[in-house]
Structures
1.
Amino acid sequence: MLLQVHFGTRLPAVMSGSYTYIYPVVAIILSQRYALLIDPLERFVFTMRSLQGVLIIVGVFQAVVGFFGIWRVFIRFLSPLTAVPFVTLTGLGLFFSAFPGVTKCIEVGLPALVLLVIFAEYASHVFAKGSFVFSRCPVLVTVVIIWIYAEILTAAGAYNQLGIT
């Protein structure tokens, strides 16, 4: 990601599996293609092989599109007027699956949300003007800080007092 920020499109795009694969993966898992297999382990193996093949093909397709700049042809048709509703609806759709996970561990989830808002909205403009790290990678900085914070909480025994082992 850091090479992408420096040399690529200068956007902090994470090139990995994303939530866009959830619907096809769930469709493959729930398909009746392997319903005749009685043994759950055998069904699992065939389903995993199908998923691996699909993800490899999709990953190669994304790499080819990104490497040859084919995306530039399509991006000119997308204005902020068309992109904002898409991003908003995607975010609202993920809210119902992500926010309950935050509330399960509020001592880590709440500071992560607060730090993300501070780093994404205020840090690059107020605290560290012109900072490369805060302007382009606020999520990465937040994840690193919260992982360290969670490690400190775990080492201090905060989770053992709550009955979590």
2.
Amino acid sequence: MAAWGERLAGVRGVLLDISGVLYDGGEGGGAPIAGSVEAVARLKRSRLKVRFCTNESQKSRGRLVALLRQLGYDISEGEVTAPAPAACRILRERGLRPHLLVHDGVRSEFAQVDTSNPNCVVIADAGESFSYQNMNKAFQVLMELDNPVLISLGRGRYYKETSALMLDVGAYMKALEYACGIEAEVVGKPSPEFFESALQQMGVEAHQAVMIGDDIVGDVGGAQRCGMRALQVRTGKFRFVHMGDP
């Protein structure tokens, strides 16, 4: 087995997942994972470029950064690649007006987006807002469109909070795909475009970067398909992956 120095030769940049790598969310904002605050600080003192790449869609990027700073991390909003701002760019570029099935905590990210007379649906980790009524309304909007467009902020199956595992947006995305007979466009990991955007913002090529995450599919697999190296941590959802998971 190759030594770590050989495996990481030529690495100039590190992409860090947030949930399950830096902290576990939960009551009171959650808790940092042991050693992660110090690890981020050490990376930032090194010659490596560091960027945070997350599928967080229950909090705005500003609110997420404020929470992480409160937990002790040296992080700024400009260092975070998140799906909601990326989705807003896509909506504006394509002239799409979304029906939003999102958490109230991230709704502010869409404040400058026209949501009148929707011609698409944007779904995110809406938490308690994933009611039958709200899911059915998203279904109805899609079924009334000649060319239905469903944009999903990530497609994770579940994530870990301090108290328990929590269903993620992917389960609800799949329900709408099945009911409407369509395929969602994923904005966030493991979308290649999302990783490429993070690399561009960091200023390194894929072969010069390593992704560190707890999700074998979204973090590790997605990064490797883009030509990056990837490491899976033994925190977050790592210990809960079942043999049936891809």
